[in-house]
Each structure stands twice: as C-alpha cells, then as structure tokens.
UniProtKB/TrEMBL annotation:
Upper lineage: Bacteria, Pseudomonadati, Pseudomonadota, Alphaproteobacteria, Rhodobacterales
The keyword DNA-binding appears for this protein: yes
Protein name: Phage integrase family protein
Pfam families (alphabetical): Arm-DNA-bind_3 (PF13356), Phage_int_M (PF22022), Phage_integrase (PF00589)
Family of the protein in this entry: Belongs to the 'phage' integrase family.
C-alpha cells in the first residue's frame, strides 16, 4: 500500500504553488491565486477517476483524509465514487429532480434545434399551461401514467392537439431524465394515452378564402403599410407566416428569395434552403416595403422584432373575414389544382411540401424553380385581377 499522511499541518500553513501528495491518491492543489483544493484520484475498473473534495482551508487536513478514505472504500468495492456522490446529491435534494426542473433542463438541451419555437416559447407552453401547474413539484421519478391521465383528461376531448403536444413534450422530458441516470418510466406517456382512450375531438382546418375571392381581398390591401404589404407578399408567395414575417433583405437576390433551411416547417434536419420564385408583382411589393426595413428585416415591428402573426390575423378578423393568413396556402393549392395543369410534384413544391420518399428525392435533384416561376407569375396575374384562364406548362405531362 502506498504511504499515507505525508502532509503536515506545518507544511499546509504556507504550501508552495503546485500539487502536493498526501498519499493513497489524495492531493492538495495549490493555485497561484492563493486558493487550494483537495483532489482524490482513484482507479475503478481500470479507469482513472478524479474528484474534488473541497477547498482548503475550509476543509481541513483531517477531514479531507476522512472523506478520501470513504470514497476509496467505494472505489475498492467496484463503484464509481463520482457517480455515487451524484446519486447522493440528487437524493438529498429531491426538488432538483422535480418535473419542473427536468422540463427546464430538457428545454435548454434542445432549444437550439427548435427554430422559432425556442424563443417564442411554444415548445414549453403545453407543459407550462396545463401540466406543470399540477405536476411541476412532483419528482420525475414518481411520475406515472395515472398522474398524466388525470392532468390531461380535461383537454383530451376538447383541446386534443394541445394534449397531444403535452404528451410528446413529456415523453422528451422523461427520456432526458433517463439519460441523466434517473429511474423514470419511459412508457408512462404511452400508458397514459391508452388510459385516456380515443379522443372525440374533430380537428378543424384553418379557414381559407376561395381562390376566386382572393383578387377582391388583394385589391383592398391598397395602403403601403407593413401589414398590407406583408399580407400581399404572403398571398403571392404561398409561404408560411413565419418565414414571411422574418424575411430579410439579404435573402433576396434578383427574383429569388432563399428561405434558410432552419426556417422551413416540416423539414426537420434539412440542410438545404428553399428557393421562392418571386413574380414581378412580388418584387414590386418588396420594393414598396423597403422603406419600412430595419435591422435587415423587411417587416419589422415597433420594437426590435418583426411583425407578429397575430397582427396579420387580426387585420382579417377586423374585416369580418373567417379566413386566416395561413389559409392563403390552401387558396393557392386549390387554384393550382383547379385552374392549372401543373404536375402534382410541382404544385406541392409551390408550397414547399415534401413529397415522395428520401430515396426518390435523393435522385430527383430539382426544386422545379423554372416551372414554379411561371406559375407564380400566373398566380400574381390572377390575384391582381387578371384573367382566370387555365394555365398550361410547356412540356407538362
């Protein structure tokens, strides 16, 4: 056995900078700034482990030797002292493994991949509004399917989409807790879903305007305000509200607007941006909006951000319209089906929908930009009051 108790109280009154061995893996590390730290080095299953025991002189020599002896015994028994200490700390602070704490930790771990949801807080809202007020203080290791069922039952048949999102988020939190080494039931959400039964909620599509009525609404957007101009460009391009509201001047080159991959919903893990063919009318709208641009954004709000989705929706609501901004995508897609002979894959590409399997897409390396450019011009002709004749694409099957 290696010699122990090499250090003395006299030496510790003024130890030089460096590492000083007390024996059997216990070291005092004296820093240049005057501080010092006790460190224990042990070997577990052939793997060297190092753990800090505390600072000196708050932790004296005798106490450091006592603590070191305890963790050496743990290592001798074949257990990792670092992990054992972590388990003890978690057990001593039960509130640190509450569902609320683990939810916040899981959110931080995945926030970077959540696109706009990370900053807008929509990922968290199903839990913060409907789950954490009732279960937030519960240790995540105690959470079971009955807790989840009782919490989500009031939503299951009335707000099914919210309840489904809450279940999905809870599953992610439980997997995160399991990855941290906590003993959780990873099937709790699936069991809760089985207990809740089939939802009676019938999903409703977002109200859309008939494509024949779009020109009349477009003509009413005559003022060059950010709201009117944003709605015009939304109609003309068929994109979703989020990339439209966050459009930047540096994303526009010529008659092409390149939407970053991470802004495209439904393209998780996508590495390619999406190109939007801009019609002459769309370019005119962009030019009208340029005087409003700030910090690179074409449609800024009065603070530091961009125009909100609610601003666009409320404008239509105040006009007494049932349709909502997102519904213009449906208007465009229906027009493509009823008033053009565009192939299915081209029509779907107009709305940035992902079609076919990954293998097919890997070999079909086109985004149909030129075909979409022609359709964008015809759609612009329609919404600005042009003729509604059937559009034919050259070479279309």
């Amino acid at each position: 056995m290696r010699a122990k108790n090499r250090l003395t109280a006299g030496f510790l009154k003024s130890p030089p900078v460096g590492k000083h061995c007390d024996g059997a893996g216990l070291w005092l590390v004296q820093r240049e700034d005057g501080g010092a730290q006790w460190v224990l080095r042990v070997t577990v299953h052939g793997r060297r482990r190092e753990m800090g025991l505390g600072g000196y002189p708050s932790l004296g020599l005798a106490e450091a030797r006592k603590i070191a002896g305890r963790w050496r015994d743990v290592a001798a028994a074949g257990r990792d002292p670092v992990k054992e200490r972590e388990k003890e700390e978690r057990a001593a602070r039960r509130e640190d493994i509450s569902l609320a704490i683990l939810t916040a930790d899981a959110f931080e771990a995945r926030k970077a991949e959540l696109k706009g949801d990370g900053t807008a807080g929509r990922w968290l809202s199903p839990l913060t509004l409907h789950v954490l007020p009732k279960l937030g203080k519960l240790p995540v290791t105690d959470l079971d399917q009955r807790d989840i069922r009782d919490t989500l039952a009031p939503l299951w048949h009335t707000k099914a989409d919210t309840a489904r999102k809450a279940l999905n988020r809870l599953s992610i939190v439980l997997k995160h807790a399991a990855a941290l080494g906590l003993d959780v039931d990873l099937q709790a959400t699936d069991k809760a879903k089985a207990l809740l039964g089939k939802s009676r909620h019938v999903a409703k599509n977002i109200p859309a305007m008939a494509w024949a009525d779009v020109p009349g609404f477009y003509a009413s957007l005559e003022e060059p305000t950010p709201t009117h101009l944003a709605l015009r460009l939304l109609i003309l391009t068929g994109v979703r509200s989020n990339p439209l509201r966050h459009i930047r001047l540096d994303q526009i080159e010529g008659d092409v607007w390149t939407v970053p991959a991470d802004a495209m919903k439904g393209r998780k893990g996508a590495t390619e941006a999406f190109r939007v063919a801009l019609s002459r009318e769309a370019l005119r709208v962009i030019d009208l909006a340029r005087p409003h641009a700030r910090n690179g954004f074409l449609f800024p709000n009065n603070q530091q951000g961009v125009i909100s989705d609610m601003t666009l929706s409320r404008h239509m609501e105040r006009r007494g319209l049932e349709a909502r901004p997102h519904g213009f995508r449906t208007s465009l897609r229906t027009w493509l089906a009823e008033a053009t002979d565009a192939p299915h894959e081209v029509a779907e590409a107009m709305l940035a929908h992902v079609v076919d399997g990954g293998v097919v897409r890997a070999y079909r390396r086109t985004d149909f930009l030129e075909q979409r450019r022609k359709l964008a011009e015809r759609w612009a002709d329609h919404v600005t009051g042009g003729a509604g004749q059937v559009v034919k694409l050259a070479g279309a099957r």
